[in-house]
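Bumping my old thread because nobody answered last time. Still need a sequence for this structure:
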């Protein structure tokens, strides 16, 4: 119903369960496509009868894992899902594949209702969106970047400097590039999200 908050069931990348920062690199060693397909299928099956509105498959680092997710989602055509990717440049996923190719792949899955970018430095988002502007333009875009800091697996912490809030001009640019929903990932707290909602709403 209009105005009702939606509950997204978050399912992260295979790399997140390894606890070694792999979700920011991709290309897992000694992991087959079937391994990844089974991993995601098992988790979807575990929650498929729970009370949620949409599946959120997020922080996906490469096309290899995205292909496994696409296969898994095709078995659940009645469960709407969004898929978002971790990226490390103006055009590529963390694993080096092009973001526009990831968008095209997800557009081929009937249950995917949006595609996006998450846990990515905010300065890359506008260029990533632009790079995929002609890829499945009918598929809604969502973005929820991190603060712009870098994960250090050796120290098990975020390092370098990030932003406390996303600049309003940047948020307006995302809106102009067709983003329909925004949020924040690692390092973005409730105060930043409150400002983000206001800036996004005022840019409409």
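Sorry it took so long. Here it is:
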């Amino acid at each position: 119903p209009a105005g009702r908050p939606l509950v997204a069931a978050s399912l992260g990348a295979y790399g997140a369960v390894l606890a070694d920062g792999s979700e920011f690199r991709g290309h897992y060693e000694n992991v087959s496509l079937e391994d990844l397909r089974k991993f995601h299928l098992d988790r979807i099956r575990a929650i498929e009868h729970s009370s949620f509105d949409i599946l959120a498959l997020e922080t996906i680092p490469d096309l290899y894992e995205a292909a496994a997710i696409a296969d898994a989602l095709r078995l659940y055509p009645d469960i709407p899902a969004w898929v978002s990717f971790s990226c490390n440049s103006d055009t590529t996923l963390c694993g080096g594949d092009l973001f526009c190719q990831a968008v095209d792949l997800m557009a081929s899955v009937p249950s995917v209702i949006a595609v996006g970018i998450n846990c990515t430095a905010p300065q890359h988002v506008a260029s990533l969106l632009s790079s995929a502007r002609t890829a499945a333009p009918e598929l809604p875009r969502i973005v929820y970047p991190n603060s712009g800091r870098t994960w250090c697996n050796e120290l098990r912490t975020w390092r370098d400097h990030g932003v406390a809030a996303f600049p309003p001009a940047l948020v307006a640019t995302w809106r102009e590039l067709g983003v329909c929903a925004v949020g924040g990932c690692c390092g973005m707290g409730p105060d930043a999200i409150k400002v983000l909602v206001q800036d996004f709403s005022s840019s409409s």
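The two ends are 21 Å apart (CA to CA). Let me know if any region looks off to you.
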